[in-house]
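Example for tutorial group B:
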């Protein structure tokens, strides 16, 4: 910490460690709740009881699945509501991050709940259709479907999903920062549909900048908090980092890796479902098995995420280097990282095990150290010339 002690606020770091520690506890609690809920559904026979009740109203397969998923997810969302409310509203207000009113928070929660049902019901209908139609190879069919859905949602996200929660305002071309960012995109032959300001301040004091969408929906999105609190050079270098992902084709690589992860998860889940069906004396295609499906996929994806996070941290370091080389603004990169740390209470030096297990990015401390080493290297090269 000595290398960057002057730009990292030590008092803020004390708060950051406390803040991040509590967030990890919340994650563990949420995971325990998820596991307990679906285990109880399985071993108490409650899952079968819910299906039996639904059979009083309909015996049509797709309706049974739709009603079952509606009840199961609704119960879970209501059960997890107190934890969700505390972690994303009360706790965030305590640390002066959240800017939402109680009414606004519940409105967003309701939107998320409805959206989860709108997406989950057809997806799970598709999974059980594949299990019935291709009982031996359903995991292959579902993997293809999952990849298609991921690409589709990435494409539609900036025009359909993001506007459900945020307002986007196009920044006119004569804006100095907009011109800088578009020029940066042109420099590396990346086409965008424009630069948009997103009203993060309606929900949080935190900041971000990113490229959103795929193909003809790809656009630059900048949080209003970033525009307000970061210098143009800092905003540019933060965006250059995100741009690096597209230049390095990390989006496509991510889709490929996610596809392999889904394939592995569904493949192993198919074996678990077979064993569970024998134990529970029901068909693999029985929707009562859904808790087994949810638990299996959830646990397997968590385990797969550990090596995926390792790869992600390497990828993030590569795009940090891209941002430094493309903009040449090393000092702006360092001060932007410091601002994220001080403003958002990021732990500059998390425990190595926590970083290994959960972090998709290198710690802020490592990123600042890397930038400082990069700066020294450039200065040495200039001296040799």
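The residue assignment follows.
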């Amino acid at each position: 910490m000595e290398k960057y002690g002057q730009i990292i606020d030590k008092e803020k770091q004390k708060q950051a460690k406390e803040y991040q520690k509590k967030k990890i506890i919340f994650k563990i609690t949420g995971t325990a709740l998820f596991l307990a809920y679906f285990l109880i559904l399985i071993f108490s026979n409650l899952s079968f009881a819910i299906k039996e009740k639904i059979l009083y109203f309909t015996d049509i397969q797709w309706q049974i699945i739709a009603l079952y998923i509606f009840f199961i997810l609704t119960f879970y969302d209501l059960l997890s509501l107190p934890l969700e409310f505390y972690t994303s509203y009360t706790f965030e207000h305590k640390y002066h991050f959240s800017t939402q009113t109680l009414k606004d928070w519940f409105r967003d929660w309701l939107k998320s709940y409805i959206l989860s049902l709108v997406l989950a019901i057809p997806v799970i209908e598709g999974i059980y259709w594949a299990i019935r139609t291709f009982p031996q190879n359903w995991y292959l069919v579902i993997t293809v479907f999952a990849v298609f859905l991921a690409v589709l949602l990435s494409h539609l996200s900036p025009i359909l999903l993001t506007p459900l929660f945020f307002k986007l305002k196009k920044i006119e071309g004569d804006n100095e920062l907009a011109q800088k960012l578009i020029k940066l995109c042109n420099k590396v032959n990346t086409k965008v549909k424009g630069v948009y300001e997103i009203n993060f301040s309606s929900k949080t004091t935190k900041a971000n900048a990113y490229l959103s969408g795929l193909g003809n929906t790809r656009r630059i999105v900048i949080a209003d908090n970033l525009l307000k609190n970061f210098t143009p050079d800092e905003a540019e270098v933060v965006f250059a980092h995100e741009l690096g992902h597209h230049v390095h084709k990390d989006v496509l690589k991510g889709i490929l890796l996610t596809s392999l992860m889904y394939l592995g998860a569904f493949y192993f889940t198919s074996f678990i479902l077979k064993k569970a069906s024998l134990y529970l004396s029901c068909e693999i295609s029985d929707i009562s098995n859904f808790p087994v499906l949810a638990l299996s996929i959830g646990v397997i994806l968590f385990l797969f995420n550990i090596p995926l996070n390792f790869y992600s941290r390497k990828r993030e370091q590569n795009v940090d280097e891209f941002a430094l080389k493309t903009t040449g603004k090393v000092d702006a990169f360092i001060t932007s990282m410091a601002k994220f740390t001080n403003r958002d209470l990021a732990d500059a030096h998390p425990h190595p095990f926590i970083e290994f297990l959960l972090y998709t990015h290198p710690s802020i401390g490592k990123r600042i150290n890397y930038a400082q080493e990069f700066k020294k290297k450039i200065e040495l090269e200039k001296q040799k010339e």
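The radius of gyration is 23 Å. Compare this with the pattern of hydrophobic and polar residues in the output above.
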